[in-house]
Specification:
The structure is a single chain. The protein is an alpha/beta fold. Helices cover about 45% and strands about 10% of the residues. The chain contains 14 helices and nine strands. The two termini are about 30 Å apart.
């Protein structure tokens, strides 16, 4: 863990609108800025409710965002962005839509290709178009961050782009947009938000300035996630989760995730398991594995989730496992259709994600990863 006097860089969207009923404020903001050609990047469901954003002018909607988008999906988005010649790009949906919006904002009309910008700080600026982000789930925190991920279908690996030029000019977080999210998705995305916070909190790069957001984000999930799963129209619970997701996004820029996300990614790239569901399944295993390296912070996490556990690894696992299982989340790889024959390939894939594994507070060897997958099977 780094010390209080260690340097850190914090970035935020220039403007954040938060609260029930704020969605239509995007339209006023865009009108005040004079943006007339607007491209909204969304999935098929959210494309039916773009009117909630109050946008006017020449509004084009790309409605073909797919879960865990790959480079082919990005190519379609970039074609739509070039055709629209937009002044403003809006990501409207979950993390997939918002990540594609980030990439469209920096790559459309640019001489750079995706391959040239993979990695940190390779996008040449300044950006030619404005970027707005409007999340409709409470999980990814992508609205607050400067990273975007797409899958390479040939290697089944996530291509990660990080750039300050992908920071939103405005993020509009209206919890009312999450009221219709099904209970199962609410549970999985809520645990994803919590995983962002926990993995930043227990990270080798953890910083006191981010710890504040991280532990509070975990506490919000512990307090409100079960309520939102049980009653999707509970406005206070939905707002609590939306805030937790935002706080998780704040954690991702300066600190980022660690082993949990590294082990979750192969489930999505190889077997198309939803990102939140993958993280929920993996979460108790990696939290327990890391306990010997960060016992005090692990105890704080368990307390934040409203559970009780000793410092014993097994006790931590049971507390974290029950938190997820009690939400109705599938906690076995076999239950998600992952074959046991793929565990070795998944372990190889996860072990290669050094950008995250190197953040983990305890070294995760390839054999450790394989053992976790086997335990989760």
């Amino acid at each position: 863990m780094v010390s209080l006097d260690s340097p850190i860089t914090i970035v935020r969207p220039h403007l954040i609108e938060f609260g029930v009923g704020t969605a239509e404020r995007l339209g006023k903001w865009a009108g005040d800025k004079g943006y007339r050609r607007i491209l909204v990047i969304s999935d098929a469901f959210n494309a039916t409710r773009v009117d909630a954003l109050g946008l006017s002018g020449d509004v084009t909607v790309f409605s073909d965002v797919t879960p865990e988008p790959d480079t082919a999906n990005l190519d379609k988005v970039l074609a739509a962005a070039n055709d629209a010649d937009a002044e403003l790009v809006v990501g409207f949906g979950g993390g997939s839509a918002m990540d594609l919006a980030k990439l469209a904002a920096v790559l459309a009309g640019s001489s750079q290709t995706l391959r040239e910008v993979v990695g940190p700080n390779k996008v040449t600026g300044p950006r030619r178009v404005a970027l707005a982000q409007v999340p409709t789930t409470a999980g990814t925190g992508s609205e607050a961050g400067i990273r975007a991920l797409v899958t390479d279908p040939e290697t089944m690996a996530k291509l990660a782009v990080e750039s300050i030029h992908m920071l939103a000019d405005i993020a509009v977080i209206d919890p009312a947009l999450t009221f219709t999210v099904p209970a199962r998705t609410t549970a999985a995305t809520g645990v994803d938000a919590m995983a962002h916070c926990v993995e930043a909190f227990t990270n080798r790069k953890a910083h006191p300035m981010i710890d504040l957001y991280a532990i509070e984000g975990a506490r919000l999930v512990g307090k409100y996630l079960a309520r939102a799963v049980n009653d999707g129209s509970d406005a206070e619970a939905r707002a609590g989760l939306s805030l937790a997701s935002l706080y998780g996004g704040f954690c991702l820029g300066p600190v980022n995730t660690a082993g949990g996300h590294a082990l979750a990614y192969p489930l999505g790239t190889r077997w198309h398991v939803a990102h939140g569901a993958a993280n929920a399944l993996i979460f108790p295993h990696v939290l327990a594995f890391n306990t010997p390296a960060v016992p005090e912070k692990t105890r704080a996490v368990i307390d934040a989730l409203g559970r009780k556990a000793s410092d014993d690894v097994g006790s931590v696992f049971e507390a974290a496992y029950s938190f997820c299982a009690d939400l109705g989340i599938e906690m076995k790889l076999s239950g998600l259709g992952v074959p046991v024959s793929d565990l070795d390939a998944m372990a190889d894939d996860a072990f290669a994600i050094r950008r995250l594994l190197d953040n983990n507070p305890r070294d995760l060897a390839r054999d450790d990863i394989r053992s976790i997958y086997e335990a989760a099977f």
